[in-house]
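Kindly go through the following sequence and its backbone structure tokens. Advise at your convenience whether the structure tokens fit the sequence:

___
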Amino acid sequence: MIVYHNYIPLIRERLVKSLSLITNECDVIVEGYDSSKYYLEVFCIMPNFQEDEDGVINIQTHTQKALSSVRQKFLRKANKQRQFSTKRENFAVIELNDRRIARDFTILSSLSDGYKIKIDIDKMTNFDEGYDWKTSIFESPETRFLKGIIWFHQGNYQDKKILINPFYK
């Protein structure tokens, strides 16, 4: 319930009419006074970090194909629960529960095709860098009816970020 406490002032201000936490359609339904409804599917990224014999921790939450990645966890949940299979205002809400995860980089790198740096070999300088969105999670059939992804870090609910699905219609 602590995740949803930020909606309480919105209810008092009459911006949010109700929150439904017990639902078979998704985790939370937020209803506005204008009868709009937002369907939230919430999940946490809580990696089980284990050190190898040299004391190194292999973190793969930012990758695209590792089972522990944000992308794969999202796709497994979407396939299992099918919440994003109906056309409506669907949002995924991700809470990052370990400070060792590399903040926004984890989400953006895993949902995109990664952070790419192009280097001019002659000058040994980078001439282009950024997230590669050519093969993002939004190209997956599971996200066809997903309007966006909201994420935040544990205990920092006010500082949430939103990534809108460019293919949502």
User: Anything to note?
Assistant: The chain has one domain: 2-164.
